[in-house]
Specification:
- With 213 residues, the chain is α+β, with helices and mostly antiparallel strands.
- The protein has 2 domains: 81 residues, Elongation Factor Tu (Ef-tu), domain 3; 125 residues, Threonyl-trna Synthetase, Chain A, domain 2 (Threonyl-tRNA Synthetase, Chain A, domain 2).
- The protein contains 3 helices and 16 strands.
- The strands form 4 sheets. The chain has a 7-stranded antiparallel beta sheet, with no helix packed on it.
- Helix 2 crosses helix 3.
- The chain is elongated.
- The relative contact order is 0.16.
- Bound molecules: zinc ion.
């Protein structure tokens, strides 16, 4: 059975215990986890398994494989404490949801422009679009609307669409329902406020960068 991903139903959990399912040299799998692995543009968490810093968290199908330092002593069947760098994760969660709101506002207000890619770190989020012209012309609308939604303290539901396939979605009633397997905040007000920046990446592509302020 693949690892139970506690970061979905309990995205605010910073510490838990788990059993080690398998150890293959530096690669370790667990029965349950709170350490998110890069997926859907969301950066991996920083975290520890036992006393060891996770060097890499990698999604492999529905499994997550963690890489530990070379001389770790973690063994199969062992119970371990796992922790995450909460400050980093919480910034990622805020920026992730800010990006969700901006993307949805772009779709709703600008005739569903084609998204090329997205990336979310603890420093900033970015979304790239095919776009003719200067995308910052939209900021007066989308930045304003996004900050209004943040101030309105709207409830965000996150649930399984298909539990077996581990497909998730988030929903804000009256605004949107969007598939996503990332970790989500519970209320829009947690974001605080955001600022947008344009980056012309060339070739008819424009980038929106999102910062917490
Ligand atoms: Zn999401």
């Amino acid at each position: 059975m693949s690892v139970k991903k506690l970061f979905w139903d309990e995205p605010y959990l910073t510490k838990t215990s788990a059993n080690v399912k398998n150890v293959d040299a530096q690669k370790v799998t667990l029965d349950q986890t709170i350490i998110y692995a890069f997926s859907g543009g969301q950066q991996s968490d920083s975290g520890k398994i036992g006393e060891y810093e996770v060097l890499e968290a990698k999604k492999e199908g529905l499994e997550i494989v963690y890489t530990l330092p070379e001389h770790h002593t973690i063994q199969t069947g062992q119970e371990v404490q796992i922790t995450i760098d909460w400050e980093k994760r919480y910034r990622i969660m805020k920026l992730h949801f800010a990006a969700e709101i901006i993307l949805e506002l772009m779709y709703q207000n600008y005739n569903h422009p084609e998204k090329i890619g997205a990336n979310i770190t603890s420093e900033k989020a970015r979304i790239d679009f095919y776009w003719n012209g200067n995308i910052s012309e939209t900021f007066q609308v989308v930045e304003k609307k996004a900050n209004e939604m943040i101030q309105a303290d709207l409830e965000i539901e996150s649930e399984f669409e298909h539990e077996k396939n581990q497909r998730r979605y988030w929903e804000i009633k009256g605004f949107g329902k969007v598939p996503c397997g990332g970790t989500h905040i519970r209320r829009t007000s947690e974001i605080g406020a955001i600022k947008l920046k344009r980056n012309n990446i060339g070739g008819g592509k424009e980038r929106i960068e999102i910062y917490l302020v």
